[in-house]
Design a protein that fits this description.
The complex is a heterodimer. Chain A is mainly β. Chain A has strands spanning 3-6, 10-14, 19-21, 23-26, 32-38, 44-50, 56-58, 64-68, 73-78, 87-94, 100-102, 106-111. In chain A, strands 2, 5, 6, 10, 11 and 12 form a six-stranded mixed beta sheet that branches. In chain A, strands 3-9-8-7 form a four-stranded antiparallel beta sheet, with no helix packed on it. A two-stranded antiparallel ribbon of chain A has the order 1-4. By secondary structure, chain B is mainly β. The chains are: A mainly beta, B mainly beta.
Chain lengths: 112, 117
């Protein structure tokens, strides 16, 4: 069975500092991996996804993530965050692109 | 591309009434639609998966008679909360896959905030 662990429930960071949001997964087969962002009282917006190919994936808003198969990780990074990046971030995994399992979420709080 | 809408964005109803939430894929045909429930400060909980023209598949613990799902077309799915009670108050989010002919990614609607008085 699949599972997703987001290691940090909250990540406070100062504006213009780099950030990494950690995500580990477990699965017995090949998976697709996703990062979504959710702003208050809104749905989820796709930041980026890994399906196959290059393990470094670039997404919207300057975010990128690296798929590490040996460590079963898919950490999300941004070199310089903005106040507007304050939101909830969800890592997700699916097997074959069907049923998707979400992590518990990481609250990124960017401080001025 | 790959835009999903939900209507209404919020609804307040009295206990015992039924509420219908619509989910539409605006610019693609959704082979599969998903309904999630999200409690405050928590992750998404999958309620059910539906394919156009067939019965929805409900997750364990989700009452199919209470949460009626209809997927009448490739662009519309509806969730009806029947005889709603205060404990049904939640944020309901739908998603759809099938954009670009691929099922590998889900695209989410903006969510519907349901408050049952």
């Amino acid at each position: 069975a699949q599972s997703v662990t987001q290691l940090d429930s909250q990540v406070p960071v100062f504006e213009e500092a780099p950030v990494e949001l950690r995500c580990n997964y477990s699965s017995s087969v090949s998976v697709y991996l996703f990062w979504y962002v959710q702003y208050p009282n809104q749905g989820l917006q796709l930041l980026l996804k890994y399906l196959s190919g290059s393990t470094l994936v670039k997404g919207i808003n300057g975010f990128e993530a690296e798929f590490n198969k040996s460590q079963t990780s898919f950490h999300l990074r941004k070199p310089s965050v903005h106040i507007s990046d304050t939101a909830e971030y969800f890592c997700a995994v699916s097997e074959g692109g069907f049923k998707t399992i979400f992590g518990a979420g990481t609250r990124l709080f960017v401080k001025a | 591309g790959a835009v999903v809408s939900q209507h209404p964005s919020w609804v307040i109803c009295k206990s015992g009434t039924s509420v219908k939430i619509e989910c539409r894929s605006l610019d693609f045909q959704a082979t599969t639609m998903f309904w999630y429930r999200q409690f405050p400060k928590q992750s998404l909980m999958l309620m059910a998966t539906s394919n156009e023209g067939s019965k929805a598949t409900y997750e364990q613990g989700v009452e199919k008679d209470k949460f009626l799902i209809n997927h009448a077309s490739l662009t519309l799915s509806t969730l009806t909360v029947t005889s709603a009670h205060p404990e049904d108050s939640s944020f309901y989010i739908c998603s759809a896959s099938g954009a670009g002919g691929s099922t590998d990614t889900q695209y989410f609607g903006p969510g519907t905030r349901l408050t049952v008085l």
